[in-house]
Amino acid sequence: MTGAPGPRGVRLVGTGRAVPKRTLTNADLEKLMDTSDEWIVQRTGIRTRYISDRANDEGVSGLGARALGLALEAAGLSVSDLDLIICSTMTAEMPCPPAACLIAARIGNPGCGAFDINGACCGFVFGLNVAHEMVRGGTYRTVALIGADTLSALQTYTTAGRSTAIIFGDAAGVVIFRADPNPSLGIIAQSMHTDGTGWKDIYVPRCRHDAPPGVELPESAFGHVQMNGAGVFKFAVGTFPRLIQETLDKAGLRATDVDMYVCHQSNARILHAARERFNLDESRLYVNIDRYGNTVAASVPLCLDELVRSGRVKPGHKVMFLGFGGGLTWGSSLWQL
Ligand code: UT7
Questions:
Q1: CA dist., res. 302 & res. 298, Å (int)
Q2: Which of 17, 163, 254, 279 gives 20 to 30 Å between its CA and that of 112?
């Protein structure tokens, strides 16, 4: 249902998450490639991750629809209340149709708009900023934003692929927003950035024409994530604190005025460095990468759903969402819940 145009508040009304059945622990990976639990935990903080099985209906739309069902239940809404379904993903089952349309079909085909956005690891945070403006502006009343990815489909679980295979996991998370008469609810400050020249630090080539200039890719690289891990790490360690500071400055707030930092879970070391830089205690910057790995667009809503359901994030809180990743992209979304 759409409403009269004009500024209004945006309330977060429900969250949900879904993961595949199968886990892949560090001990499992030790059997598949030359790696060790000790190396993975020390370098990334990851202990286990979930791996999807398409035969079990665990693609992006299967996981996304399950998570959306749980979010609708938590919000006390029905499928017909949705005005728009947006799915942030880089691993939709097919290039066409968009995963959001498959999700719409799975939940009962509400007839509302549905489309995907691809902002890689930053996609969900960019999606928050986009979805918020659509509700704030008065055109849409109830929007579901899904973050779902199954990067396991783009990996080789062999020693040759070990630097990316160990970090990624599969999952989906959802947030539902609604227009609210209280105009102070919603985004306080946000930012979205790209350095497109950094695209070659993370990419998934389809053919030899996709290779960066001067690089000859073997055929085995096609369809698999190519990542300059150390380069991305350096970019993220530097960018992350700058992004937090930029967002705080825009909002006129101090780091401790924010109740919770919900960050893309790329590497525990990157998160801990940011925590130390702003002198935040452990309870204020959430880390769950040990149990899920890096789930790309799903990582932020996965954290949020855990935080909301455990009561650690609630109405009245200020929450900063942060993402960075392929593109290169980085962005933030600071909310008054
Ligand atoms: O989601 C957004 C995008 N992605 C990221 O944010 C990822 C950011 N980057 C990272 O998290 C880290 O760079 C990785 C975890 C991917 C890699 O850790 P690193 O400390 O940067 O390792 P490295 O790539 O510099 O490799 C160091 C060594 C190498 O051996 P040599 O050449 O020093 O002998 C690698 O071959 O570690 C080796 N190595 C491994 N050893 C055991 C790389 N992967 C593995 C592995 N197990 N899985």
A1: 6
A2: 17
pLDDT of residue 282: 87
pLDDT at residue 121 is higher than 80: yes
Query: Can you give the pTM of this predicted structure?
Result: 0.95
- 97 and 132: one domain? yes
- CA dist 105 and 99 (Å) reads 10
Tell me the residue range of the domain where 144 lies: 9-180
Cis, peptide link before residue 72, omega less than 30° from 0: no
Domain count along the chain: 2
Q: What is the pLDDT of residues 290-305, one digit of tens each?
A: 999 999 999 999 999 9
pLDDT confidence of residue 19: 98
* Cβ 228 under 6 angstroms from ligand 1: no
298 lines ligand 1 (CB under 6 A): no
- 24 pocket-lining for ligand 1 (C-beta < 6 Å): no
Query: Which protein residue's CA is at the shortest distance from atom 21 of ligand 1?
Result: 230
